[in-house]
Specification:
The chain is of the alpha+beta class. 49% of the residues lie in helices and 21% in strands. It has a six-stranded antiparallel beta sheet. α1 packs antiparallel against α2, α1 (6-45) runs parallel beside α4 and α2 runs antiparallel to α4.
Length: 200
C-alpha cells in the first residue's frame, strides 16, 4: 500500500503500537490470572488436610475461580479384588442426580469416560436434567482426570452457564498435576496413620 502522506505513515505506526500494547496487556493479564490461581490453590492445599477436607477445599476453590456453576470431585478407588470405581468425595453447589450417583465405574458417563481415556472431555449438549435444579440450564460440562506419576487419582467435573474459555481450560490443565500430588500425599498420610493405629 502506497502511503499518501507522512501523516498516514505516522497514523499507521500509532495504530500498530496501540494494537501491540493491547495484546501485551491482555497477555500480561492472562499470565497474572493463571499464576494467581495456582498460588491460591496451593494455599488451599497446604498443611495436612485429610482427603475429604482437601477435596472440599479444592473443588470449592476451582468452581469459584473458573466461574463454574457446579463442581464435583471424584476419587478413584481400587480394591484388592481388582475392582475400581470413582467415588464422589466432595462437591460445590451440587444437587443429587438420579441417573449418576455417588459411585461410578470406569467408562460410565463423561466422568468415567474421561477417567478411562485419560484426557478431559467437554459436553456441549447438556441435557436439561443432567443436574436437576431451579436455575438456567448448563451450557457445558467438563470432566478432567488428574494423576500422580501416571496413576489415575480422580476426576473433576465442572458445569458452566457459559462456554468454557481457552484460559479457563489452560488453568485447569496446569493445576491438575498439583492436585494429583496433593491427593497422593493425603492418601499416603492416611495409610501411615492407619498402620500406626494398628501397631498400637
Amino acid at each position: 500500500i502506497k502511503l499518501l502522506s507522512e501523516q498516514d505513515q505516522l497514523g499507521r505506526a500509532l495504530s500498530e503500537m496501540t494494537r501491540a500494547l493491547r495484546e501485551g496487556a491482555a497477555e500480561t493479564a492472562r499470565q497474572d490470572w493463571l499464576k494467581t490461581g495456582q498460588t491460591q490453590l496451593h494455599n488451599q492445599m497446604s498443611g495436612e488436610p485429610d482427603l475429604v477436607t482437601l477435596a472440599k477445599q479444592v473443588i470449592t476453590f476451582l468452581t469459584s475461580y473458573v466461574e463454574a456453576a457446579v463442581g464435583m470431585f471424584y476419587l478413584f478407588k481400587e480394591t484388592n479384588q481388582g475392582k475400581s470405581s470413582l467415588k464422589l468425595l466432595a462437591s460445590h453447589a451440587h444437587t443429587r442426580r438420579h441417573h449418576l450417583d455417588h459411585d461410578l465405574h470406569l467408562g460410565e458417563g463423561i466422568i468415567g469416560q474421561a477417567a478411562l481415556e485419560g484426557h478431559h472431555i467437554v459436553l456441549t449438549q447438556v441435557p436439561n436434567d443432567y443436574i436437576p435444579w431451579d436455575k438456567p440450564p448448563l451450557q457445558q460440562v467438563l470432566a478432567m482426570p488428574f494423576r500422580y506419576e501416571q496413576q489415575l487419582k480422580g476426576v473433576m467435573e465442572l458445569g458452566f452457564f457459559q462456554p468454557l474459555t481457552d484460559v479457563q481450560l489452560e488453568f485447569l490443565q496446569q493445576v491438575m498435576p498439583s492436585i494429583g500430588i496433593a491427593v497422593n500425599t493425603a492418601q499416603s498420610r492416611t495409610q501411615m496413620q492407619e498402620l500406626l493405629r494398628r501397631v498400637r
